[in-house]
Structure formats: C-alpha cells, structure tokens
Amino acid sequence: MTGGVFAIAHDVSEVDDDRTLVEAAQAEPTAFAAIYHRYANRMYVYVRSRVSSEEDAVDITQQVFVKSFKALPTYKVSSAPLGAWLFRIARNAIVDHQRRVRPMTDIDAVPMILRETGAGPEELAVKSEEVERLRAALMKLDRKKREVLALRYGGDLRIREIAQATGRSEEATKKQLSRALKSLRQNYESNP
Amino acid sequence: MNPIRNRRSITSPNDAVPEEQDDLVDVLRHAYSSTPVPQDLVAGIQRAVRVSASQPVFATRRPLFGFPKSGLLLAPACAAVVLGLGLSGAFNGSSPKSTAGPSAAAAPIAWTNATGVAVQAQAVYVAPNVIRLTLSSAAPNAMFRQDNSTSKSMPSHAAGNGTLLGTIRDYAGPLSIVPFDYPRSIPVVGAQCPAVSHPSNVIRRQVCFRVQPSHGASGPGYVYLVAPRAQVNEKSRRAPEKASPAPFLRPYYGKGFYAGRSMLPPHRTCPNGELCWVVKIQPLKVDSEQSSDR
Questions:
Q1: Around Cβ A90, how many Cβ atoms within 10 Å?
Q2: Distance, CA of B178 to CA of B246 (rounded, Å)
Q3: Lowest mean pLDDT among A51-55, A91-95, B263-267
Q4: From CA A67, how far away is CA A93, in angstroms rounded?
Q5: Burial of B77: CB neighbours in 10 Å, binned 0-12, 13-18, 19+
Q6: Facing residues of B125 across strands?
Q7: What pLDDT does A168 receive?
C-alpha cells in the first residue's frame, strides 16, 4: 500500500485521466478505444466472477462497452467516476442476464479459479489446502459481501467507485467491505 | 489467455479499510487477478464496436469469415454502432460507394437502399441458434427498429437490392437456413461456412446465411434461422416438444435493441416439423431509445 500525497495525487490524476478520455471520446468516438483498453480486462474479471461461462462473460463485457459507447454522449464524469459508471452498467447487464438464465447463487461473485475443487493452487501459487479454505470461506459469505469483494478485487475499483456503482454511500461501502473481510477471515479460521 | 493488465497498483489511504492488511486479501486479490482473460476479448470488441465503415474504432486482427474481401462494399458515410460478437455480416450492395479496405471483411453490413440512403445492418448473436439483425442509418427517418406492431407507412429496408451474409459462431449444433416466402418475398439461401480455428483451438462451426431482399419490395424483412428440434433448447434445458422460442428470445429485445424477435410459434412456417426462429427487421422512425445506463 502506498500512502501520502503521492497516492492522493494519483487519485486526482486518474480522475483527470478519465475525464480526458471521456471528453476525447465524446468529441471523437474513435477515442473510445482508450476507455475500452483501460477497463476491459478488469470488467471481464468482474463479470466472469458473476456468470457461469466464459462465453457469457465475453458477451456481457461486450454489451457493457457497447452500451456505454452509446450512452457516452450524455455521460458526465462529474456525475460518477468512469469506473463506477461502467461497473453500474455491468451490474445491470448481469442482472438482466441472470433473469434469463438460472442464477448461479452458490458461486456468484467467486473468482473463477476458486470455483471448482482441485482447481487453482497452481495458478495461485499457494498450497492447495489454503485455496480450499479460501474457497470454503468465500462460499459462506452472502452474495452481497461476495459482490463487494468482486468489485474491489476483481473490478479493482476504489471504495468511492464501488459506492457509486452500487448506489450506496462511501461510508456504508467501507463498512460493508470491512464486514466482508472480517467474515471471510472468520470463516477461514473456522475451517482449518 | 492473457494475464490481467492495467490493474491499479497504488491505493490511497483513504481508499482502504484496516481489514485489507490481512494476508488473506492478497490471496483473494491474486485469485481474481489470475482469472484467465480470453485473448479474443479484445478482438471481440474490435469486431463489435465500430464507428464507421471507413474508420473503425478498433483494428481487426483477422477476417471474421472466409468471404472474399472483394465482395464487400461499404458506404463510408454511414455511421453506426455494430454489436456483434461472434456474428457479423456484410452486404454486397447494389450501389457501391467505395471499395473494401483492408479491414472490410469484419466491417458491419453496409448497404445503400433504393432511395440512396446508406444503411448499415448489424447481425448479433444473442443465444445458441438465435441471431438478431438490425438495420440502421445515420440518415434521419431511416433508422430501422424491431417492433411488434406492423409498420405500414415507413420505408422499408428491403427497398433495395443486396445480399446479407453472416455467420454464427459458438453454435455447435446443426443449423440450416430455409428459403421462405412469407409474408413478403425475401429469399434466404443457406450456405455452409468453413470451420474456423478459434484462439482456444476449438474448431467452431459457422453457419452462413444469406438474405437477398427482393428488389423494390416493401414492408418488414424477415430472416428465418432453423434448427432441428433436438437442438433448440439445449441452453434453456426445456423439453424440446414443449419448447417455444419466444420466451427464449423475448428478454433480448428490451430498450435499446432494435431488431429481431420470435414471430411465430414453432413449425408453423418451417418445413419438416423443424422449429423456426424468425428475426424480423422492421423499419420505423429514428428511435429515441438510445440504450443507456439505467
């Protein structure tokens, strides 16, 4: 973790970057590519954690960017950070998707590589028993807690962005993140 | 699969909670970041989002399908967004305004209708066996949108002459196209596309279809895609004999989507007892329903 003035400056710079990207894309649609490249992978990782197949995740990721592309002319950075706006679109797209297919309530918002027993240790470079415990601990969390973790670590969003993507206050989001992590640790400890 | 890129590495103290000091968070973070990202994710968007036929937003890495580039004619003045992962197409326009460029094989369908209005079409894969076609145009009052109601007064996309070619990817089962003549004549000719090698080394079947609008025809245009019964609801896991494509399709046509829906119950129009999907293309006014965040 890096703190201090630099980190705050980084935040400001990132907001400015997003603003620049948005303004460029609003003036010249071809500039949307830069927005896509900044967010596509993080978006995919988040979406992938919430749907059951790679194909669906790719489709939804695409939908998010096409929707945002079409809505971009009316979007204002001042109303919500770009990341929050994109992930809010993603959440809606996922809800729409889950209405159409059977929701994967048991593994929703669980990292893809932690979903199946026996998978993951190689990728994670940790002991398989730790992976199993983490998987079990995650599974015990309710869906909302898992989602805030997915937005935070899958979508790589800041707390402020999560708050705006989910329609909660920053303070409430912080508390929820804290509670989710505490519960995760408790579940982890209770399953040695 | 690509590793995760563009991840943030710096966290402000204001952007953290004390519990994130836990080592478990590192493992969790690593678990998410280890999610394999398909290499063709970017390619998919490259295919999907284009601003104009002459100036693509994203460069195309490879042709979508094996049709000769020389057969594709584009209308550069035509602006549209094309949504089409896994399925795209092209018109052989009757009124060529430009020749195909290097990336034209993946270009959206571009077509000039009989009134000289540049039109683009998008062919969207929405589910196994299901495609959605959309016609659009930068010209006012030339947008085409799916609608349940019958449009009697608007000009038709079919008032031109062209050939629509498209492919369906990621559908493993058989699929054929039937010529039809309902309710207005738009001949459809099926053609098998060559299998293509997917980046994941999976050979995926592609099925081509061709729609040849009748010259001077009016009214909505329809495209029928036909799959054998047994293949119909493999995704929805419903008994084939009870299956109706309608509920399978309906959710896809909400606000912001333009074209396509199941129009008829199974085996009312298709020969040999097969189920049909009907993708309806119907001209309406310029829509005011730009898809947006809710």
A1: 27
A2: 19
A3: B263-267
A4: 10
A5: middle
A6: B131
A7: 92
Instruction: Find the mean pLDDT for residues A67-95.
Output: 89
Residue B135, both tokens: 């016609």
Q: Does B37 touch chain A (CB under 8 A)?
A: yes
Domains and CATH numbers, chain A: 4-189 (1.10.1740.10)
Q: Give residue limits of the domains in chain B.
A: 23-281
DSSP B213: P
Using alpha carbons only, give the angle B56, B60, B64 rounded to the nearest 5 degrees.
Answer: 115
Instruction: Please give the pLDDT value at position A28.
Output: 74
Tens digits of per-residue pLDDT, B237-249? Answer: 333 333 333 222 2
Residues in chain B within 8 Å Cβ distance of A116: none
Nearest Cβ partner of A49 from B32, B36, B45?
A: B32
A123 to chain B, closest Cα gap in Å: 7
Burial tier of B287 (Cβ tally within 10 Å: 0-12, 13-18, 19+): middle
Taking only Cα atoms into account, the Rg of chain B, rounded to an integer number of angstroms, comes to: 21
Which one of B2, B16, B29 has the shortest CB-CB distance to A153? B29
Pairing of strands B275-281, B221-227: antiparallel
Residue B20: both structure tokens together: 């994130």
At B204, is the secondary structure helix, strand, or coil? strand
Distance (Å, whole) CA A147 – CA B126: 26
Residues found in chain B:
294
Please give, one letter per residue, the 3-state secondary structure of chain A: CCCHHHHHHHHHHHHHHHHHHHHHHHHCHHHHHHHHHHHHHHHHHHHHHHCCCHHHHHHHHHHHHHHHHHHHHHCCCCCCCHHHHHHHHHHHHHHHHHHHCCCCCCCCCCCHHHCCCCCCHHHHCCCHHHHHHHHHHHHHCCHHHHHHHHHHHHCCCCHHHHHHHHCCCHHHHHHHHHHHHHHHHHHHHCCC
Assess contact for A42 and A71: CB atoms under 8 A: no
Q: Name the residue among A27, A37, A146, A143 with its Cα closest to residue A82.
A: A37
Global pTM reads 0.51
Residues in B closer than 8 angstroms to A139, CB to CB, are: none
* Token duo for residue B35: 């999610």
Residue B120, H or E segment: strand B118-127
Burial tier of A10 (Cβ tally within 10 Å: 0-12, 13-18, 19+): middle
